[in-house]
Amino acid sequence: MVKKPDTYNHILDIAEELIQTVGFNAFSYADIAARIGIRKASIHYHFPAKTDLGKHLMLRHQSNATVYLNNLIKEHKNHKDILVIYLKSIFASTYEADFKMCLGGMLATDVLTLDSALQNEVQAFFRLTQDWLITLLKHGKKHKNFKFTDSPADIAKQILIMIEGGLLLARLYQDDKWLKTAMKQILTLVTHEEK
Amino acid sequence: MVKKPDTYNHILDIAEELIQTVGFNAFSYADIAARIGIRKASIHYHFPAKTDLGKHLMLRHQSNATVYLNNLIKEHKNHKDILVIYLKSIFASTYEADFKMCLGGMLATDVLTLDSALQNEVQAFFRLTQDWLITLLKHGKKHKNFKFTDSPADIAKQILIMIEGGLLLARLYQDDKWLKTAMKQILTLVTHEEK
DNA sequence: ACTTACCTACCTACTGATAGGTATAGTTAT
DNA sequence: ATAACTATACCTATCAGTAGGTAGGTAAGT
Q: What is the pTM (predicted TM-score) of this model?
């Protein structure tokens, strides 16, 4: 593994925050430069084009998510607890200033303005998350921490839908009651069998 | 009611489509001008600033939605049918080219880049929809077309969350299975009491 | 020890394109 | 004639991106 210089990750940190706040098309290299205190051209040194920045950001995001999600499963026993911790961690950044949205969700709305390589990375991120959820749901059901009748794949889709929908509306109204509603509904989903 | 000239609505039509496709910050007056076949400056005559365009668009959208939703309730008897027709009408535009997102949802993600008057109109649109849903849910429950235990306000929130989340993911993958999942889950929500 | 060569990480200064927006003159329907 | 509308021509600001240079460090050759 190549150790990337500090500025590289610093740029990605700022870009991530900006995308979560205003979206991919609404920030510029000048915005990042101003916040870090270097020149625009220096950012082009690390990321020749804006789409490169997006791609590297998504790859780092996928990698971070993989580590985080795998550790979550290792460190806890109850699958319901894992789900709750996971949901809270996603919603947590929303409680920070400006009600940031999930990085993937933000790029998902901008998806038709992104080049196809970047589109693929955004899709890959959600696929990764969905696969993890499916695994969690299967194990959770086997250990009787979860109860549901739909397929794990369907439940995973419903969870993603409610995460993104909840974030979108929480952001719009700057009100976390939308997240609480989503959270509650997700938990109902995985603890109730249909009649 | 003042009868607005044709170009006025034509501009709003194109703007609406562009916002649903790429978002508020990713289209320009030049894009609209090119599609209509007039000059950029002519659009500024109708809408001096871009934010004016957004505001007028949202007001028209609110007005159209109000008429549409009220007619829906008048023209059908079964509240479940009404809900299904409503959901299908929202999801229909997504099946058109490019998987357009709901206008409100698209502006919701751009919300932090919009001026506060426009933010308010986006919020007002969702409030309007939510109020209509609450009314529908109350009447539907009274007539035994719906069964649910949460408050109508909570169910309405959950429905909006699933509409927007479903659209976001359907758009990302250009795949309507996400809409079918959302649709199914919404119908489950309003026809099942919790145990 | 010192040169040569190359590298990383940043800089200044610029490009062409496009953004939103304006002043003003011309056109068209009533 | 006049109000409504559209056009030409232009503005300033900003966008992503490039050219070329520089400071400092590393590695190898002699």
A: 0.93
